[in-house]
Amino acid sequence: MDFSKKANSLATMDGIGFIGLGQMGGKMVEHLISHGVKVFVHDKNKSLKDYYQKLGASFEENPEKLVKKIDKLFLCLPFKPQIDEVLFGVNGVIHSAKKDLLIIDMSTIYYSDAQALKERLSLSNIRYCDSPISGLPIRAQNGTLTIMFGGSECEYQEVLPFLNLLGEFVIHCGECGFGQMMKAYNNIVYNINIAAISEIFPLAVKSGLRPEALEKLFVSGSSRSFASEYFIPKMMKREFSDDYLMEDAFKDIENVREATSNIDGDKPLLNAMIKTYLDALEMGFGKSSKSAMLKVYEKRYNVKIS
Prior knowledge:
By secondary structure, this protein is α/β, with parallel strands linked by helices. It is built from 15 helices and 9 strands. It is 52% helix and 12% strand.
């Protein structure tokens, strides 16, 4: 990937807008600025202003003022209430957006909400695409995210230079909403991996195997996965925080439930994972990371991994 060529071409373009400077959004903005992209930013946390201005961004007071200066707006927000406030609130985007503003929403929401946002914004001559991301903050910082774009081919080509700068793997998933659906299915497979580890790890320890030996096996053997590489070391250290909260990530499950509600046939792995996930939430682990599913089976087998 030739970042220098992309940086040169993007640097000559008009600036873009970016709202949402959290763990992921903030790193993406840093990466864009470091490659010569002019970025107008906003976040409700005004204490970030000095930091991003020193990096070279223009920190705008509110979304209404920001969109007067750009024709492409990226969003990376927690969930739909925050998106609604940015788009339709008192100082929202719709009050001053240029005609044909293109919104690229990198938040993770329900796919039906993405489709509804597109419909509502079209009444104000604003275009909307969903483009959720997959990857840790380090991948956002390095520009190596996986990006799942939902929108028309024309819109995809229009924004592709920026997506290519932010992501190593950029997938055009289809119409608006399909990016969210694609991410949900990706995360379902991820969740199944975590649930399997959470069940089998304590079961193996209960059988008499040493946790240290199992850790080495699960991160190097044929059972190896991103889930095992990332979470098993944390499980060994009893670290169940500093990741995306289980209660917030549950929207992936609800997305897939909605998408598959009219599809006949058994879904044994999906349903088993959902039960483990729900058990963890009911046991009070919603504020923990997904690795807290381990605690469900530790309790059932009366064993503790450490």
